Amino acid sequence: MASGLLRVLLLLCAVAAGARAQQWQDHGNPYPTRERKPIRTGMVPWPNTAGTRWYGLTGDYELWERRSVEYCRYHYRWRYHRNSWWFGGRWRRYRERSCTMVWSWSLKGKHDDIPQGYGADFEPCMLEGIEEIHQTTNAYLSGYSTRLNEWTYHGRPPSDDPVSSCSSVAKEGLKPRTFVHGRGSLWERYRETPSSGWTWRNHGKPFGHSVRDGKTSSYVADQSAGISHVYAVSRDGSQVFRRTTNEDHQNEEWSFYGEPTTKVQHVHATLAGGVWAIGYGQVCMRRGSNLFPCYAMPDSAWSVIDCSDPFRVSGGKAVFCTARNTDRDSSNRLYQVKLQDSPSDSEPTWTDHGAPSPRFAGMHHVFYGRPNVAFSGNSVRSVFVSSNMGVYELRF
Q1: What is the topology classification, in CATH, of domain 26-75+107-395?
Q2: Keywords assigned by UniProt (predicted)?
């Protein structure tokens, strides 16, 4: 009896500890006018800020920043210090400092030359080295300088191909480069020097295969050599390709990077987290030159929507994914998917992080875009998701 009671108490303590370890925070939506303007893309963290700066787009292409700033104030208190060697004592006045983190929305706007259209396309991409943010809206590329507080219109490639999505490699000391898809080809927007203008460059199609529109994925593979990798999916979703690029545009090539076991829509890749692909309801990970397995969720009532960039965890790699209930109400939830490095045929571990509490009874969350992750060192600090009810943060 006593041992059974002890087990119950330990279980309750574990549940309570888990509840304390993570919590959902409601960030709401920007309200610049009386008209409600929800964020319609994933929120993207500015690199190396431990999740204190995030950016997303509303349906009318406006770029918004969600920023956390430390607010501190000082106040005075009296304390009585009793003498240790004699009766009595004396009062002393102390100044104490208390700080709290205050969140706020800030409108960054949009470029005036972007034509009106059907709404925000994809999440923005960060160019850390030059403090710029690029975004594709209504099939045009534009950029915002966080340092100069001004916009640059990049338009479309010389072929006038409409562009979709973007990813960037722009670390300190490297030339800024942004990659987009346009009519089946991979395009690059780059700048040689800070004083020179921006230039379009066409990387073409991998072995004659048109690539799918959608989220591009790229990362710096060798910073000292200026080498980056960019990933693309064939239009029919059956093959993944990698473009090895150099900031000097030398020794560049396409390579075949695998055939996932199901048709996929796009790829998310990082140097530490590996190469993952998002199928129709499944998540896939490249685990070898001829091994690109895909995994459905354990509960067949749920289907993967999209996932974050992958990251390294102890003993393996992981992503956060949004999922949709396909049986009942199409409600959405957040999961973490982890795959061990070995053995190569190990199955993923799915951790259900649920969803924020709905604002109104009977409603459920529908997530926009994909989840994105901020880190404190090598540890996950928070995950942001955009919803039909606002922007939410899962904080660890």
Answers
A1: Methylamine Dehydrogenase; Chain H (2.130.10)
A2: Signal
